[in-house]
Design goal:
Helices cover about 55% and strands about 15% of the residues. By secondary structure, the protein is α/β, with parallel strands linked by helices. The chain folds into five domains: about 180 residues, MutS, DNA mismatch repair protein, Chain A, domain 3 (Orthogonal Bundle), CATH 1.10.1420.10; about 100 residues; about 200 residues, Rossmann fold, CATH 3.40.50.300; about 110 residues, no CATH class; about 50 residues, SH3 type barrels, CATH 2.30.30. The protein has a six-stranded mixed beta sheet with strand order 10-11-12-8-13-14, sandwiched between helices. Strands 18-17-16-15-19 form a five-stranded antiparallel beta sheet. A four-stranded antiparallel beta sheet has the order 1-2-4-3. α4 crosses α11. The longest helix has about 80 residues. The radius of gyration is 45 Å and the shape is flat. About 0% of the residues have low confidence.
Length: about 725
């Protein structure tokens, strides 16, 4: 399976906004420059590896063996220099290469040590060679301060020693001249200065001819002339020659070091690429931690089950504004392949649709998503979107023309491994004609077994969704009292658009709304009103159900708390009873011993004392053995116990076998009876006035008309149409 997702789809779902957030968590410029290029993986195998890497990195935040710091310097320039003959890398560049090599090696070493904790990251690291040759070469030549070490060559050490000696001589000769001319009164109060990196004497102009040396400048006012003493000039020329020799020796050493590193150019490329990829994995993991994202279960069965799913962009925005965002739970499977969401504008239909699409795109790009860990996701090879107003002035296309072109592409590319997302399906043209065409498109998507979510206001699409197998209506709930959206998705029923209610909320005069109502067909208003009423009732039931669940949960907590307290009290009572019994036993024993002792003190009869004591001890031992029978210790006794146990087990197995035989017989009888009932139901031909109910439903209605396989059912407060295959007979008309 090769994934093919267009840039338009990524743009529609605002995927670039997610990448911008991931980019902020990168620690390197290379990582930040690479993140915007992230796209959905082309194969499932590569995607699963990428997701597991990010998930492993995320777990490192919660254990003691956290991944070491892997920040690094970009060495692209240094790598390019290695390709140029006779070129050399400067000391600062070698420090970057050293840092990158050490970071890569430290990471490789860590992952090898903890490969059981990070198996996928370890496997990925095996593509990179671990070696310290590069770092050993650089450390021999370059100091941690970015300078060539004196020990890099004997000649460099000698030159630097001579430079130090000459500088000392320059300082000594300058100090002598300074002292001499200061004593003579030829110098200004500041005495000395620095010109062109040379120490110079600050001479009063009237005495400049008395000071031998080279005139290097004057002050701005001309009140001071700067002269380098003659005694230091000779040493200065010698110093310049030595500095030039030092520079040439350093270049020679750097060229040699560059030549030593050159064979490892491809390894340095690999180091930089590996650390960049690790930086991106780390950025994804940090972003996942920031939005409480997880890796859901990736399933091979075609289904999407997103539990408590958040739109990541809204999640961060609402968190900043300290508002509450309501998560959505939604499922697509072979029995519910398409969901048609309806409801009022600004009720959250488009956000729900975008949430599902964006989370799917994120996951297929190796980014974890903010859902419950009980969620399950399938990997689609195509994700098609038609979201927002796409009017094109440049191509002279209206919104509807553009959407028709888009539908043509949908029909051409759509297959059973496609997820399609269409916002405001069928809009842009005459409602009746556009709605009819939208019905045909929906039937085509359904026949191709594609998964999808669409949002609409069209009543005919809501009806079609109810008639087609494996297509479900859904609505965004709306509080009719406050005229505020609840942003909760409810699957199983179409939603009212609440057109007039929303208009009223937005300040449209009630008289104008009434006039508008009169212009609309009575049946349509009646249908919308019925749907609105049902939605209102369902909202009440749902609130009542939630309240009951809370009460039940609270009662359960109280029951558990009482049970815990009861268990603790019982435990304490048991302990008190044991202490009491022990004390009573000790009292009885003490009394008996005291009685025997008093008798002995009176009679002084040892024989009688021992006899009485042994008699009492024998009685007590008999009582003890009765309560605590001795464990069988001899082989014969153990063998006898085993024989008894074996006979008991054989009896139990025999009884179990007999019971199982009886159960099988009963099941066969029930199966035959059930088959007869099922055959009678399947053979039954429905007639007008039959009382029926829809499968999995509880409401009972009467058949008003039958047209081919479509049946019209009157439930008293509303009339609906459905397929005959979905009916269950309650009472025949002639019964």
């Amino acid at each position: 399976m090769e994934v093919n997702i267009s840039e338009k789809t990524l743009e529609d779902l605002e995927f670039n906004t997610i990448l911008e957030r991931v980019e902020t968590f990168c620690i390197s410029d290379l990582g930040r420059n690479t993140v915007p290029k992230i796209r959905p993986y082309l194969t499932k195998e590569k995607l699963l590896i990428a997701l597991k890497k990010t998930d492993e990195y995320l777990t490192s935040f919660e254990n003691d063996n956290r991944l070491p710091n892997h920040s690094f310097d970009e060495i692209t320039h240094e790598i390019n220099l290695l390709s140029i003959e006779n070129s050399y890398i400067v000391p600062e560049g070698f420090l970057k290469v050293l840092n990158t090599s050490e970071t890569a090696n430290e990471t490789l070493k860590f992952l090898k040590k903890f490969k059981e904790i990070y198996p996928v990251l370890f496997t990925h690291s095996q593509e990179v060679e671990y070696t310290t040759i590069i770092t050993d070469y650089i450390k021999k030549v370059i100091t941690p301060f970015g300078e060539v070490d004196d020990k890099a060559s004997p000649n460099l050490k000698k030159i630097r020693k001579e430079i130090l000696h000459i500088r000392n001589q320059i300082n000594e000769s300058f100090t002598r001249a300074l002292s001499k001319f200061h004593s003579a009164g030829y110098l200004d109060d500041i005495r000395e200065s620095v010109v062109e990196n040379h120490r110079v004497l600050a001479v009063i102009p009237m005495h400049k001819r008395k000071v031998k040396g080279s005139l290097l400048g004057t002050s701005k006012s001309g009140s001071i002339v700067f002269i380098a003493p003659q005694a230091t000039l000779q040493y200065s020329r010698e110093l310049e020659n030595l500095i030039f020799e030092e520079k040439q020796e350093i270049i020679r050493i750097l060229k040699g070091l560059t030549e030593d590193i050159r064979p490892f150019q491809s390894l340095l490329v690999l180091y930089q690429r590996y650390l960049t990829q690790l930086d991106i994995i780390g950025a994804k993991a940090k972003y996942a931690k920031d939005i409480d994202a997880v890796l859901p279960k990736i399933v091979s069965e075609k289904k999407i089950f997103l539990k408590e799913a958040f739109h990541p962009i809204l999640l961060e925005k609402y968190r900043t504004d300290k508002n509450v965002i309501i998560p959505q739970t939604l499922e697509l499977n072979e029995y519910q392949q398409i969901i048609v969401i309806s409801g009022p504008n600004a009720g959250g239909k488009s956000i729900t649709l975008k949430t599902i699409g964006l989370l799917q795109i994120m996951l297929q790009s190796g980014i974890l998503i903010p859902v419950s860990d009980k969620s399950e996701v399938y990997i689609f090879d195509r994700i098609l979107t038609d979201i927002g107003d796409n009017q094109s002035i440049e191509n002279q296309l209206s919104t509807y023309s553009y959407r028709l072109k888009n539908m043509r592409q949908f029909l051409k590319r759509c297959n059973e491994n496609t997820l399609f997302l269409i916002d405001e399906f069928g809009t842009g043209s005459d409602p009746e004609l556009g709605g009819a065409l939208a019905e045909i498109f929906l039937e085509e998507f359904h026949s191709k077994k594609a998964f999808g979510i669409i949002t609409t206001h069209y009543a005919n699409l809501k009806v079609l969704a109810d008639e087609l197998d494996n297509v479900a209506n859904a609505n965004m709930q709306f509080d009719e009292r406050s005229l505020e959206p609840l942003f909760k998705l409810f699957i199983g029923q179409a939603g009212s658009s609440f057109t007039f209610e929303v208009a009223q909320k937005n300040g449209i005069p009630y008289s104008l709304i009434n006039r508008a109502k009169k212009k609309v067909e009575g049946e349509k208003i009646r249908l919308d009103k019925t749907i609105s009423k049902l939605q209102k009732e369902r909202n009440k039931l749902q609130k009542h159900s939630e309240s009951l669940e809370k009460e039940q949960s609270k009662a359960k907590e109280q029951t558990d708390s009482l049970s815990d307290k009861e268990a603790k009290i019982q435990q304490k009572l048991s302990l008190f009873q044991e202490v009491y019994d022990t004390n009573q036993k000790m009292l009885v024993t003490g009394r008996k011993i005291n009685e025997l002792a008093n008798k002995y003190f009176q009679t002084n009869n040892k024989k009688e004392l021992i006899g009485e004591f042994m008699k009492w001890a024998t009685v007590e031992r008999a009582k003890y053995l009765k309560k605590n029978p001795p464990v069988k210790t001899t082989k014969a006794e153990k063998k006898k116990v085993k024989v008894v146990e074996k006979k008991q087990q054989e009896k139990i197995k025999k009884v179990e076998k007999e019971i199982l035989q009886e159960v099988v017989k009963v099941r066969e009888v029930k199966k035959i009876a059930a088959a007869k009932v099922a055959k009678a139901k399947s053979d039954y031909i429905f007639h007008i006035n039959d009382r029926v109910k829809i499968l999995d439903g509880s409401a009972v209605g009467t058949i008003e008309s039958i047209e081919k396989k479509i049946v019209t059912i009157n439930f008293g407060f509303l009339t609906t149409k459905t397929n005959m295959s979905k009916l269950e007979l309650v009472q025949a008309a002639n019964a």
